[in-house]
Amino acid sequence: MKKIKNGFSMVELLFVMAIMAALAAIAIPSLSAGSDSATLTSMKSDAQNTITTLQSAYVDTQDYTQVSPAAQTDYEDTTGDGFADTNTLTSGQNLALSKGNVVTITTGTVDQNGNASNDCFTISVANPKLAKTVDFDSCNDGKIQVN
Predict the structure, then answer these.
(1) DSSP string of 71-85?
(2) Largest CA distance in the chain
(3) Which of 60, 64, 145, 147 has the fewest CB atoms within 10 Å around its CB?
(4) Nearest Cα to 89, choosing from 120, 71, 66?
(5) Does pLDDT of 100 surpass 90?
(6) Rounded to the nearest 5°, which phi and psi values hold at 90?
(7) How far apart are alpha carbons 8 and 60 in whole angstroms?
(8) Nearest-CA neighbor of 64 among 11, 107, 31?
(9) For residue 57, what are the contacts with CB-CB under 8 A and spacing of at least 6?
């Protein structure tokens, strides 16, 4: 009488599980690196959006200290609607923010000659997921930098 084999042996199942564990060990770190890259890209995007919003509000006042309600203000979207929780600018404009990013706007900063200037501002974008910040200084270099 011939014996009929039904299913897989325990050794075969353990071998397949070992292969799957090895593949997961390779894939998971590369997926988390992609998440960090996406977070950094969202921080850069929020910095650029903030720059554009501040510059468009500046057209009306010609003074960055009149654009933001305080000399240094932090903005965050805790509700998840894609905008800062408070009206950001004195003109009533609101900042579009990615979830988790915190934007700090400092107005009336020092220019490249060391003089206080109402025509300058700095922006710093942070996210608790990353140890990096995205910074912009309108008077000294005018470039978005990752620190």
Answers:
(1) SEEEEE--SSSSB-S
(2) 99
(3) 147
(4) 66
(5) no
(6) -65, -20
(7) 75
(8) 107
(9) 67, 89, 90, 91, 93
The whole-model pTM stands at 0.70
pLDDT at residue 6, as a whole number: 77
- pLDDT of residue 33 exceeding 80, the answer is no
DSSP string, 5-62: P-S--HHHHHHHHHHHHHHHHHHHHHHHHHHHHHHHHHHHHHHHHHHHHHHHHHHHHS
Task: Convert 83-95 into a string of H (helix), E (strand) and C (coil).
Answer: ECCCCCCCCCCCC
Residue pointed to by tokens 């897989």: 8
pLDDT 10s digits, 109-139: 776 677 777 778 888 999 988 889 999 988 8
Do residues 105 and 73 make contact, with C-beta atoms less than 8 angstroms apart? yes
Sequence letter at residue 139: C
Going by their DSSP bridges, the two strands 133-137 and 121-126 should be labelled as: antiparallel
Residue extents of the structural domains in the chain: 10-146
